[in-house]
Design brief:
The chain has 246 residues and is α/β, with parallel strands linked by helices. It has five helices and eight strands. β3, α3 and β4 form a beta-alpha-beta unit. α1 crosses α5, α2 runs parallel beside α3 and α3 runs parallel beside α4. The protein starts with 20 loop residues before the first strand and ends in an 8-residue tail after the last strand. The mean pLDDT is 93. The chain binds NADP nicotinamide-adenine-dinucleotide phosphate. The site of NADP nicotinamide-adenine-dinucleotide phosphate has 29 residues, from α1, α3 and β6.
Length: 246
């Protein structure tokens, strides 16, 4: 496991194994739905399970009982999970704020962002990691954000979202260490999808940024996932497979 998460992936493409289950949490979102569509079209997995708040069973990251019930539902399929992507997240709205200044810091908004962006994925780890197969390649990837990088923070602002994504990255790193003890071929990573035109970003000016549509972002994410091997577990990568500083 490399230490800084800044190693870029090699260009060699390693296809994910055929069969097994691919699971998308947050499949109702802009990037999550594009990922689900691509995974279904690829037919590389025997089944694609889409979980979301409005789905059945419902997956609400603020409700651990629902997370446990969703995990039990997936376990009951008896299929090996070969890919689990966490594509949930919130930046603004639902009680969260994209603060421009410390003057806008609000305890409830900070707590809400942490709950959805960091604690929710941590609970997914708690309930879904034990379901991962003990042998063979499998990937647990959560969509983080480059703005969660402390080393890359030059603009400031977005306090709660940045802090929550930094917390998520640390949670993923710890999970990668623990995962390796029982599942040496498994991979756990944080990913930045690029700037993507979805509901999450729609309210923000994106001048000067390379804004992708969700289909392009999903293709980049899946390509990056294909190129990961177990030595990359615990890393933080962008949609081009480039390492991002913590
Ligand atoms: N778009 C970008 O430019 C960009 C850049 C960097 C990182 N990201 C990250 O990429 C991920 C996906 O973002 P997106 O752009 O696709 O945003 P999006 O279209 O707003 O989708 C967000 C998803 O999160 C789900 N969600 C929100 N709160 C939830 C909760 N309490 N429980 C369960 N699900 C919940 C939403 O479910 P509902 O449909 O039920 O609301 C939706 O499926 C996020 O982690 C985001 O931080 C995005």
């Amino acid at each position: 496991m490399h230490c800084l998460g800044e190693k870029s992936l090699s260009a060699a493409t390693q296809a994910l194994p055929e069969g097994g289950l691919a699971l998308v949490c947050g499949a109702s979102g802009g990037i999550g739905s594009a990922l689900s569509s691509k995974l279904r079209a690829d037919r590389r997995f025997a089944a694609v399970v889409e979980l979301s708040r409005g789905g059945s069973p419902p997956l609400d990251l603020l409700d651990e009982a629902r997370i446990a019930a969703a995990a039990a539902h997936v376990a009951a399929t008896g299929m090996d999970i070969r890919l689990l992507i966490v594509a949930t997240g919130v930046l603004e709205g639902e009680g969260c704020h994209a603060e421009k200044s410390w003057r806008q810091l609000d305890a409830h908004a900070l707590a809400k962002s942490l709950a959805v962006n960091a604690i929710g994925p941590a609970l997914l780890i708690k309930h879904f990691m034990p379901l991962l197969p003990r042998s063979g390649r499998c990937v647990f990837a959560a969509l983080s954000a480059r703005v969660g990088s402390i080393g890359d923070n030059r603009l400031g602002g977005w306090y709660s979202y940045r802090a929550a994504k930094a917390a998520l990255n640390q949670v993923l790193r710890s999970a990668a260490v623990e995962l390796k003890r029982t599942r040496p071929e498994a991979i756990c990573v944080a990913l930045h999808p690029g700037t993507v035109d979805t509901g999450l970003t729609r309210a923000f000016a994106k001048r000067g940024l390379e804004v992708q549509n969700p289909d392009t972002a999903a293709a980049g994410i899946l390509n990056t996932l294909d190129r990961l091997d177990s030595a990359d577990s615990g890393g933080f990568f962008d949609q081009h497979g480039r390492g991002i500083p913590w």
